[in-house]
Each structure stands twice: as C-alpha cells, then as structure tokens.
Please model this.
Amino acid sequence: MRLTSTILLTATLLLGNVLCCGAHNVEGRITCDGYGVADVPVSDGYEIVMTDADGHYAMTSAKRNGYVFYTLPGGYEPEMANGFMPQFWASLDSHDTAVHETHDFTLRRVDNDHHIVIFGADSHLARRNSDRAYFKKGFIASLKDEAQQAGGTPIYSVLLGDLTWDVFWTQNSYDLRDFMADMKSWQYPMPLWPVIGNHDHDPSIPEGDETDFESAELWRQTVCPNYYSFNLGKVHYVVLDDIVYLNEYEEGSSYSPGVAGNRNYRGAINAEQESWLRRDLELVPKTTPVVVCLHIPAWSVTSSFGYYARLDNTYWLCALLSKFDQAHIVSGHTHGNYTVHPAAYPHVTEHNLASLCGTLWWSACLTGKNVCHDGSSAGYSLWRVDNNHLSWKLKSVGNGSDQMRLYDMNTVRSFYRTSNAMREILSEYPSRVNYSSIEDNVVMVNVFAYDQDWRVSICEGDSMLRCQRVCTEDPFHTITYDVPRWNAVGYYTADYATSRSTHLFRAVAATATKPITVRVVDSFGNVYLRSISRPHNYNLNMESQENTIIAGDVNADGEINIADVNLIVDIILSGTLHGCPQILADCNADDEISIADVNSVIDLIIKQ
Model:
C-alpha cells in the first residue's frame, strides 16, 4: 500500500511539473532583429508546432531524438557557428520529459529568392591515402572559388552523406568530430546542410532493436538532426536519413577495432520519418519546388537504361512528392552520376551524384587523377535558383566546367593488347570489357552528367557520325586505378574497379586520322564543345590534349569574331562545309545551318 502511494505521489508530482509549464516541456522564441517571427514550424522529429505572432513556440516532446529544430523560412538565414554550421537546431538539456527547457533562435533577413546551392557527396575522409590533403586543396578550394564568384548571391552547400568512413573511426582515429574540426580549421566557406550516410553511423553499436537509432547518436550530437527541412527563397529543401543501420554480428567473424558487426544496413525511410515528412510537406504549397536530399538513391539505372526502386519505400516517397508541381531528389552513395525520370511520377526527377573522393581517394593517390569508377571526374553539382526556376550544372573538382572526356579507341585497343598488366587483369577478371578486340576507328565520349533530354553529336572532320549510347566501361578509370593498383600490389579491390557506365556514347569513324569534334547540349541549352586530333594518346595526360571550343568559334581559332560570321555565310551560300565540323557551324544547336546561326554569332560578338 505504501509502495502504491509512493508511485501515485511521484506520478502526481511529475504531472504537476508538466502542467505548471502549460503542459509543455520544450518552448522558446524565434526572433529577427528583436521581433518575433510567426508561422515557423518547430519540431523534435515527431511533433510539429508553429510559432505564434510573437515568435513563441511550445510543445510536449517525448525528447527521444534529443533535439529541437525549426524549419528555416524563406528570406532568412540562421545564426552560424564556426562560420559554416547553421544553428537551426539545439540539443535538449535532458531526456527527462518532466524537465522543462527553453531554446531560443535568432534569424537574420536575407534576400535569397535568387541563390546558389552546391551539392557534393561521399567525401569518405578517414585519415588515409592523403585524403584530407586532397579534399582541402580540391573541394574546399573549389568552394572558396565558387563563394567568391557568387558575389552578392547567397550561396549554400549540401553534403549528401558519408562524410567519414565508419570502419576507420577507431582504426585511424577519425570520426565525425574530427571531420567537423577539419571543416572549422579549413574555414569551410559557406553554410553547410549535411545528410547522414551509412558510413556516418557508429559501428561500435551492436546488433539489436535500437541499433539504427543509437548508431546515429554521435551524428545527432555532433553534426545536426538526422532529418530536417529548411526553405531557401521559394524552394523547400528536405534532408532525410534513408539508412536503417543493422550492423549484424556474424559468428566466427573478426572485426576491426571499434566495429561490432558487418556494418550492413537497409535502404529505407523509417516510420517515424514517414510520419514527420507527411506533416512537414502538408505545410508546403503544391506550387513550391521541393528538393529532397538523401544518401542512398531512391532509384537505380539498369544496363538497358531502365530504372528500378532502390529503397524499401521508393514508391511511397515518389507518390508523396508527385503532388507537387516540381520535385527533385538529390542523392549520393553510388559514387557515379546518373539522372532518373520515373515514368509513373512525371513531376519527380532524381539526380544521383558521383563522389568527391573519386575511387575512395585511390586514383588520386596513385596517379593524381581523382576519377570515379564510372569515369566521371570527382565533382559536385552547382544549382542556381531564380524564384521557382531551378537549373544545375556539373562542376569537376580541379577542372571547373569539364563535362566530358573523349577516346580514340584505336589507341585504347593498342594498350589493351600490349600491356602486361591489362592482359593479367583480363585473365583474372574475365567479365571485364576487353577493348583489345574492338573494331577499327571507334571513338567514344563519356558525358559525365548526361540526362535523357541532352543531345550528344559527334563529327569526324566535317561529317556527322551516327552516335549511340552504350553501357560499357570507361577506359580512363582503368589506367587511373585498375592498372596502377595492379602494378603496385598485384591485385585491386573489385568493389573499386572500373564499372559499366550509363553515360558513354560511341561512333565509328571512316578514318584513323581525321579529328573528332563532340557537341553536348544540356537541358538548359548550354552548349559544350570538345575536339581531339587523331591518333589521340591514351595515357594519364590525355585530357590535357583535348581542345575546348567556345560555341560560336566556328573556325576554332580561339576567338569569336567576324571571321566566324563570314565562314557561316560562305557555308550557307556554297552548301559546302569547307572542312568545318557541322556542329561548329550550327552554333545555335538546332541541327541546321541557317541565318539564325549567323545572328547567334553576331549576338555573341556584341556581348563580348
């Protein structure tokens, strides 16, 4: 009886503590210039409440996630810690629901209807292969250049997971705390909105019912919430954690220090996030562009260029997003580039980005060339937002706006036939593509960020060639990773090896000597032109032997001037290309040579 009375008294006191605080245990105020900001969603990852006219919010939180965050409204920025960490969230003081606590936030007004967002993925910093040095002089330097070039336009960044590499947290003493310390030391130059990846989960958490939740604890304490949303201008961004971390223990297996299991996982958005995401998106007008940031992609591409769902609940997510006029998913994880337009969800596009680490920093370490297994240069995607209009462009770390790489397959074939290392690799791995038997005079181009509405054209001399998209291996990755790794130790890691790429194009030329010119036109009408002389070397410096041509430079002399106008006029009047590649004379890329091309060049001359 006495025990029952004690329990009832304790329960009454706890209830009284909550009631005396208006039945809320987390509250605060969001202000700008001392004034409250109304109608700002505030959440603990489960509940969502709105600030009142004075900027005040209050909620009854189960305090499970250990944080509270707000959804940044458009036209504002949060306070920044260390110059790059948006303070849109706060760790709770206690997990005790009877403890009342207050967390205030301060905003500042920024006109960000026009803004830039840089998306990067998979840095995999682990204190190995000189990764931190390459990351600093590559991506961090690129970000600083982009911030300078942005001028007065607000610029932000999103890293799409695998900031670190879990197996090396203990082995190399480098975890999320070290990553954040490095970013501070290197003066990361813009606000960073991070996404948790599978390698950002704590591998020391053993298999169990709470493994997924507990393994993200260091992220929640050190980096930010593992799922949240924010608005920049007129665009709504959502960050999700689509890893269900399992870390299953296998009897008889030995694990690295600090690792309790296989570090395995499922790709899925868990039930708590599903519930939260529904409520978050209910607050967003259907005309608002929505950008969802994931680590594991929702979709994958097949060798025949079809798509299949990669997450357990891909269809649920896309059905939810398809209610909006424009929805994008941006993801990483695969270390390759591809874009998906699922036919059943015409308003949804997924952009999967290649890694910043290339081949886990191996190709950079072995050859100084940071290349991904699909042949893409390590890079990032730069998005420009003008109100509700979004455009994007791949940027290669160290190579700026590099969009493609060209191959003279005659020289590739010769290497495959004469290289001892290549013959040994093909013998050991017979499923690899063997270019030693490719037919004469094939040329190929890898268009790193190819999308289905892009146009790729290949000219030999002044003749247009039939161009075909193929799923095959990129030859440059072979000589930047496979061969040097094989030469160094007599093997390579199959998971890192050259993979079949879905953004390669081939054509068969008539000769082995005429120059090749390639034109790529992207979704926004941007024109990219590259050319090579033949035979074109197949070696580590082959990219430096490609020539970049500016659209409008019809005679390819490095300038756009009246000589280019005269050449187009002469081509129109004579009906002869005079050795000029057709795709150069067609400077407005409408697939015909006419007075419109003359006008295009004149406009370019005037704008110079």
User: Anything to note?
Assistant: The first strand starts at residue 26 and ends at 32. The CA atoms of residues 6 and 89 lie 38 Å apart.
